[in-house]
Specification:
The protein is of the alpha/beta class and 274 residues long. 27% of the residues lie in helices and 22% in strands. It is built from eight helices and ten strands. It has an eight-stranded mixed sheet with strand order 3-2-1-4-5-10-8-9.
Amino acid sequence: MNYWRRLKANVNHACFNLTGRRPWARGYTEYRLAQLDRVLSDAHFDPERLPAGYGCRLDERIIEYPWFMARLPDGKGALLDAGSVLNHEFLLSRPKLASKRVFVSTLAPEPLSFTHLGVSYVYEDLRQCCFRDGFFDWIASLSTIEHVGMDNTMLYTTDVTKREYEPDAYLDAVVQFRRVLKPGGTLYLTMPFGRAQSYGWFQIFDGGMVDRVLAGFVPTRVREMHYRYTPAGWTHSSRELSKDADYFDVHRSKGHAPDYAAASRAVVCLELTK
């Protein structure tokens, strides 16, 4: 079975390369996984010094995962994956995560779980986190809080009570993150950045919304990194350079844009110490 899965993945990967590397076309998932595995396995890769052409025609995971893994310390401790973005074996099996007690908090069960790797799962609204005060050493919430309070029935749950439009609800999740994090603990938070806009099932954050996140979390230390997608790939950016960025919504768009963006055209990555 593993042989046939690998064969299918290789065929799809080859198909993606031969048909123009169009985001979300056949083979895109396999190509993205191969690129992520290559980057995450490169001990010399530095997300603060992106090579030319980095992540061309790939979505923001090519930024978020390497950034997070580079910033996360080695060693033991409790880590909360708030949103289930880390719920992939190629991530959970890496030493930095394998050495930690990993808890996944998300709205509803997903097709795959990795209890054999020691991962614990909780199904809940991040605004009503069940964990006790000061439980976690680290929290990772990558590309998640832009969905809090929005219509999550489109992709993530069949619970009709989650068909919402409460665009300020992300602040309630931020308060919960701070509550369950230990003093001195770290929150790794990313979200699409640019011109504030609602897409119904998520929203883009602008500088004012990021400032509200910071005010709600009250960090003792802040590290803020910006990245922007260009037709040549991902590059470093700033609030000013990314302020007009938007999003390619594959679920509602017809065809690709000239830059072949796969999703966010800019992201902000926050490392916040309690």
